[in-house]
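Students often ask why inverse folding is considered easier than folding. One informal answer: many sequences map to the same fold, so there is more than one right answer. In these notes we will look at a single instance of the problem. The structure comes first.
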């Protein structure tokens, strides 16, 4: 990538692209060959299993990140973007295999990264503003940083959910395992 690719903040864009590029492989390593009881475990009612997290990440690739980036660049602060249905993945992932979903996520992310590079190479203003339906004014910079942190959040969630399944087995070592001390 060239230095003039992004107006104002090459380093930020490179960091975001690096993180976003690594997520599909990280998720694959975390989930592939995971026993079904861990893959589909959750932390209680209304929480996501690692399998559900993967479905949610896929749904974000389809309906959230790039569509919202394009929306900001096209509509600015004139119209809020459409709300994101955090649970739309539940129906989309029903009766689908883990490998199928991992492959779909990898493919969608590759396409999303190509679209993001195109947006950035086109000289997009990272401070371009848009309207979130709940949060109000946001910028393209904030959206892209949120995309990367969203990935990290869900990677942490996957590991936390799996760790939670062993909470009763670790005995007194729980005191030394911060992953087991959290609000669900």
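Output (designed amino acids):
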């Amino acid at each position: 990538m060239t230095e003039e690719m992004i107006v104002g903040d090459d380093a930020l864009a490179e960091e975001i692209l690096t993180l976003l590029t690594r997520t599909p492989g990280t998720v694959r390593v975390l989930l592939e060959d995971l026993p079904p009881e861990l893959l589909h475990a959750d932390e209680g009612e209304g929480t996501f299993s690692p399998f559900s997290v993967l479905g949610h990440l896929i749904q974000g690739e389809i309906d959230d990140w790039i569509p919202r980036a394009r929306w900001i660049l096209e509509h600015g602060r004139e119209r809020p973007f459409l709300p994101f249905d955090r649970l739309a993945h539940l129906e989309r992932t029903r009766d689908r295999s883990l490998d199928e979903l991992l492959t779909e996520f990898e493919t969608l992310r590759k396409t999303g990264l190509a679209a993001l590079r195109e947006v950035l190479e086109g000289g997009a203003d990272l401070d371009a503003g848009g309207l979130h339906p709940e949060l109000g004014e946001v910028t393209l910079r904030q959206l892209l940083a949120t995309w990367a942190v969203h990935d990290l959040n869900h990677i942490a969630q996957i590991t936390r959910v799996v760790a939670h399944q062993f909470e009763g087995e670790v005995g007194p070592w729980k005191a030394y395992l911060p992953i087991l001390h959290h609000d669900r």
